[in-house]
């Protein structure tokens, strides 16, 4: 190893040590094979459905493509196929969109869309809790400004950090006449479901606010539906379709790695926007396109949704969400733990994501994992300091017995924490076998 590399490793090691000191060091881990899954984003458990697996294998066996494993290149070179183009049309039609463009992931879709569409002088206004991929796309864009608004706060009412407050300030600012006249554009970016809190965007209000503040139609709403696709709307068409806003939302980004149980993403948009992305989206142009197996998995899962086969799974998931929340609320009512030790929102959740707030997320996650329930700690900087939690993600493949077992494990952890006096913010992980701090 050269001296230069050695010095660089020392710098990197020092930065990692700083993160370790803040108890924020990330590591790759493996989920135990027999643990009950309350962690992944596969809300409909489609990848484990026999009918989906059978359809996927049938596509592979029937494939006439000479390049079965890989696509061979970028979509603009040798990686395109009639199968990919027909799949885009099928997905767009299912979601009541006029066109769609596939990307290797929803992250690539967000980065590609936001990185090239906003023009110089345009502004991107975004919910402060949008996904990291939105931020990466905005950084690459030529937009003149990027302005956050308070999470899910739409109307002003004296709140200048609301969406309306931010738009009013923009219209009244130094370049306000350019936005009032429609010469410059405003892109407003929100998510359908926010992955850390599981809350649903007030999308109807967002669209109405943008249309009211920018009546010349130079306000363009972009919705990241990664966590709402498959879960919301008729047959899983998403939140935009559930609310009937297909013609009032400019673009949607869908991810297939959550409820759809496979991988990839798509931008639903106008045919003109699709052509523009083909010419300017760097995350499409400069990467190898998805191979046939990835496309076939998307086709298989969409057929499963379109044919209504996923409806029993969606019904079961809704019941699990309702009953799990009731059990967690009842647990807090029985023990009345300090709110920083354990707290759940009392309002019934609208998505399969239920955050369980705790100042000792690693301790609680470890305790549950050792008892066969896979949950993950969510800590700063992923969430703001003081809002750490474990995130309970429910799936159609979960059983009520698994849910009850998870709640019993959380209840036992609370009891051990209180008895051991380890109810404050964690400095070390709780020894799940003894209920004592592990230094």
Could you characterize the architecture of this molecule?
This protein has 439 residues and is of the alpha/beta class. It has two domains: 31-47 and 311-437, Aspartate Aminotransferase, domain 1; 63-306, Aspartate Aminotransferase, domain 2 (3-Layer(aba) Sandwich). Helices cover 41% and strands 14% of the residues. The protein is built from 15 helices and 15 strands. It has helices at residues 3-21, 50-62, 82-94, 106-116, 132-140, 163-171, 176-180, 203-213, 239-242, 271-280, 282-285, 292-306, 311-335, 361-369, 400-420; strands spanning 36-37, 99-103, 123-127, 145-149, 186-191, 219-224, 251-255, 265-269, 343-344, 353-357, 373-374, 376-378, 389-393, 430-431, 436-437. Strands 2-8-7-6-5-3-4 form a seven-stranded mixed beta sheet. A hairpin with a 4-residue loop joins strand 14 and strand 15. Belongs to the class-II pyridoxal-phosphate-dependent aminotransferase family. BioF subfamily. Residues 37-410 form the Aminotransferase class I/classII large domain. Pfam families: Aminotran_1_2. Its cofactor is pyridoxal 5'-phosphate.
**Quaternary status of these chains?**
single chain
Q: What is the annotated CATH architecture of the largest domain?
A: 3-Layer(aba) Sandwich
Q: What is the straight-line distance between the termini?
A: 34 Å
Sheet with most strands: 7 strands, mixed
Report the structural category: alpha/beta
For the CA atoms, what is the radius of gyration? 23 Å
What is the CATH topology classification name of the largest domain?
Aspartate Aminotransferase, domain 2
Mean pLDDT across every amino acid position: 93
CATH superfamily of the largest domain: Type I PLP-dependent aspartate aminotransferase-like (Major domain)
Q: Helix coverage percent of residues?
A: 40-55%
The percentage of residues in β strands lies in 5-15%
- What is the number of independent domains? 2
Strand order of the largest sheet: 2-8-7-6-5-3-4
Spell the H/E element sequence: HEHHEHEHEHHEHEHEEHHHHEEHEEEHEE
Which parts are unreliable, with pLDDT below 50 for 5 consecutive residues or more? Answer: 428-439
The coarse silhouette is globular
Beta-strand segment tally: 15
Using the coordinates above, name the CATH class of the largest domain: Alpha Beta
InterPro entries: Aminotransferase_I/II_large, AON_synthase_class-II, PyrdxlP-dep_Trfase, PyrdxlP-dep_Trfase_major, PyrdxlP-dep_Trfase_small
Cofactor: pyridoxal 5'-phosphate
Pfam family, one: Aminotran_1_2
Protein name: Pyridoxal phosphate-dependent transferase
């Amino acid at each position: 190893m050269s001296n230069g590399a050695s010095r660089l490793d020392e710098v990197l090691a020092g930065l990692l040590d700083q993160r370790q000191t803040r108890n924020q060091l990330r590591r790759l881990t493996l989920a135990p094979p027999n643990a009950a899954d309350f962690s992944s984003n596969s809300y409909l458990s489609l990848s484990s459905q026999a009918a989906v697996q059978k359809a996927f294998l049938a596509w592979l066996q029937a494939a006439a493509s000479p390049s079965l494993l890989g696509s061979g290149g970028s979509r603009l070179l040798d990686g395109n196929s009639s199968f990919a183009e027909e799949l885009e049309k099928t997905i767009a039609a299912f979601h009541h969109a006029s066109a769609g463009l596939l990307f290797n992931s929803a992250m690539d879709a967000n980065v590609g869309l936001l990185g090239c569409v906003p023009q110089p002088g345009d502004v991107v206004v975004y919910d402060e809790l949008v996904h990291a991929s939105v931020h990466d796309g905005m950084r690459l864009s030529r937009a003149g400004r990027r302005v956050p608004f308070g999470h899910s706060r739409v109307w002003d009412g004296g709140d200048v950090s609301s969406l309306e407050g931010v738009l009013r300030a923009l219209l009244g600012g130094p370049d306000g006449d350019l936005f009032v006249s429609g010469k410059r554009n405003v892109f407003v970016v929100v998510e359908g479901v926010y992955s850390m809190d599981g809350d649903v965007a007030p999308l109807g209000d967002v669209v109405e606010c943008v249309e009211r503040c920018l009546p010349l139609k130079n306000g363009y709403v972009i919705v990241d539906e990664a966590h709402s696709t498959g879960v919301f709307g008729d047959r899983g068409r998403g939140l935009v379709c559930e609310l009937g806003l297909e013609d009032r939302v400019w673009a949607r980004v869908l991810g297939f790695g959550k409820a759809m149980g496979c991988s990839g993403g798509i931008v639903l948009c106008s045919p003109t926007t699709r052509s523009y992305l083909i010419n300017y989206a760097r995350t499409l142009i400069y990467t190898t396109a998805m191979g046939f197996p990835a496309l076939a998995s998307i086709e298989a899962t969409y057929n499963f949704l379109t044919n209504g086969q996923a409806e029993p799974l969606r019904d079961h998931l809704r019941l699990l969400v309702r009953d799990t929340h009731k059990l967690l609320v009842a647990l807090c009512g029985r023990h009345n733990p300090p709110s920083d030790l354990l707290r759940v929102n009392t309002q019934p959740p609208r998505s399969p994501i239920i955050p369980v707030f705790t100042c000792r997320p690693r301790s609680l996650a470890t305790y549950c994992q050792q008892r066969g329930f896979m949950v993950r700690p969510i800590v700063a900087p992923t969430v703001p300091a003081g809002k750490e939690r474990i995130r309970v993600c429910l799936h159609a493949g979960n059983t009520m017995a698994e849910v009850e077992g998870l709640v019993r494990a959380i209840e036992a952890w609370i009891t051990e924490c209180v008895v051991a006096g380890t109810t404050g913010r964690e400095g070390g992980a709780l020894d799940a076998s003894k209920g004592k701090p592990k230094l």
